[in-house]
Design brief:
Number of domains: 2
Strand content: under 5%
Number of strands: 0
Largest sheet: none
Distance between the termini: 92 Å
Radius of gyration: 31 Å
Helix content: over 70%
Length: 199
């Protein structure tokens, strides 16, 4: 999976270089307003491809290290160990993690729009500006309070899912519950000594 992703990013960068070379060759051959039009088109193409390559790289890095916090909290790793653990667990599931982040982002946007609409409707007439602004900020706060824990729970579930897929974590837990500690043996009864005689 990593090789395919690196290949896609490399192809995008190669396309940017090829377009830049073609633009350089054409700009020497063509002059006047045609050169300007070609320059604008090529600049847009290069900027778009470079932006896509950068976005793909950022998403890949974010997804690769997204499981570092659960690994740190639940397994007790340090910073570097948690990043290595996240890289191992997220391997072969980068696109799935990116999709989960995308869905969480869509959910956050929907909740933010839903809770900020009353404030926007109230401020449409130009009156009650302060109240409408307060309602919009309060709506954004409520949306963040609802969407934040949901995304954290989603990442925690992905962490456990990856441990089950890669390490059979569910079988480990099952085996741990089946192995019972040896019951403590009751102390052997000792013969009761008669109380000492007084006198």
């Amino acid at each position: 999976m990593r090789d395919r992703y690196s290949l896609v990013v490399g192809l995008i960068f190669a396309a940017v270089i090829v377009i830049a070379v073609i633009f350089t060759a054409l700009s020497g051959a063509v002059s006047g307003s045609s050169a300007r039009i070609i320059g604008v088109v090529v600049a847009i193409a290069i900027g778009g491809l470079a932006g896509l390559a950068g976005l793909a790289g950022i998403l890949w890095i974010a997804a690769k290290f997204s499981l570092a916090v659960p690994a740190c909290m639940l397994e007790g790793h340090g910073a570097i160990g948690a990043l290595r653990r996240s890289s191992f667990l997220a391997k072969d599931s980068i696109l799935r993690i990116i999709l989960i982040y995308f869905l969480m982002g869509v959910l956050g946007i929907v909740l933010s729009l839903l809770f900020s609409v009353p404030g926007q409707l109230l401020g449409m007439g130009g009156k009650l500006f302060l109240l409408s602004t307060l309602l919009e900020y309060f709506g954004s706060f409520v949306a963040g309070v609802l969407a934040g824990p949901i995304s954290t729970i989603a990442i925690a579930l992905v962490y456990y899912d990856q441990r089950v897929r890669k390490e059979a974590f569910d079988l480990q837990l099952m085996m741990d519950t089946m192995v019972q500690p040896a019951a403590a043996q009751p102390p052997s009864p000792q013969a009761a000594e008669p109380p000492p005689l007084i006198g």
